[in-house]
Amino acid sequence: MEAPAAPHNPAENRAENPAGAPAAVPAEDVAGTPADVPAGTRLTITSPEQMKELGRRLAELLRAGDLVMLSGELGAGKTTLTRGLGEGMDVRGAVTSPTFVIARVHPSLGDGPPLVHVDAYRLAGGLDEMEDLDLDVSLPDSVIVVEWGEGKVEELTEDRLQVVIHRAVGDTTDEVRHVTLTGLGERWAAADLRALAA
Question: Which of 171, 178, 175 is CA-nearest to residue 10?
């Protein structure tokens, strides 16, 4: 069993963030974060509602052509974050895990882009195996969110947002998640991801 996340006091986070916003945490304060995670903006999330709120805030930064790659253990909160994205983007349909259908398209209820939600967990190959999903055709007009996409969709674009959700694993009821957001490519060079904690 992996050691639990760094000690925390959720009441302190609420005091600093009364609206339930995620708390920004300096990189050195995130104990248990894998060493191979690239440097980025790191947030501490203490509840599923905060994870959805992070998704809603992130939705404000997204636009057609964006690729968001979500990584994390089973139950880390990838789909919960995507639900928040769907709410923030005002898309049609309930955002649920697309594990058995591989991909779901949620059209916008307004003027925004559709949300394409992909779960690549059961796909063993890279982009070749995902070719039937036509993600390369959908990307310019959509926001594409891929769970379990590492090693499978990076070839779609050099510009992508990588979101790594880390939680304690094993027999734990700990709701704390450490989320690292790393923007890659020109699209994300000027994006201030730290604003997501405001």
Answer: 175
